Amino acid sequence: MGKRVAVVLAGCGVYDGSEIHESSAVLVHLSREGAEAEVYAPDVDQMHVVDHVKGQPTQEKRNVLVESARIARGNIKDLAKLDVKGLDALIIPGGFGVAKNLSTWATQGKDCIISKEVEDVLKAFHAAKKPIGLCCISPVLAAKIFPGCELTVGHDTECEKWPYAKTAETMKELGCKHVNKHVTEIHVDVKNKLVTTSAFMCNAPIHEIYDGIGKMVGEVVRLA
């Protein structure tokens, strides 16, 4: 039997939801590994809606579950109905929705609040010693919930290639260990069964981001 992996989305679109290329890469690599993806999202309003042409917020209102269903081709469940018992692993792709809809990291940084549903799910998989895969900005969720854990969001020195490197410093302030890794690499926290990769935290060719996510997914399935 293939592994059953929960994939939690945060909307649809890099600036206000889940990063679509990352989400798609996770689903493709799970399929390649012979694993079955079960897609979930919280039934809540987005923090805001961003016009992805102008890069600016609009007056629109959208629902995270409804928007995430676009990526899942309609095959999605309310996060409130997730039962860790029937699942082997958890993966959360990145995108600003993680920092806006699953948590308040975008506005509060290390002082953020994580959505209770999301926190409960992460803690349930962790308590059951089931692996958790996180990419791009989503490792901040683990940094907030699991003190002392080991993670990567790429590099901790800001430059043109790593425009969001300050995130690593903020995560360190929460007491976790940040490990510098290239975009095609992963870091595995063996003790906590956390597998992380930087994805679009790096200005890299999309195939390198895809490859890094593939390694993360492969390791999550192997650990499950």
TrEMBL record:
What organism is the protein native to? Mesembrinibis cayennensis
**SUPFAM superfamilies referenced in this protein's UniProt entry, alphabetically:** Class I glutamine amidotransferase-like
Q: Which CDD domains match?
A: GATase1_ES1
Indicate what this protein is called per its UniProt record.
Answer: GAL3A protein
Which InterPro entries does UniProt cross-reference here? Class_I_gatase-like
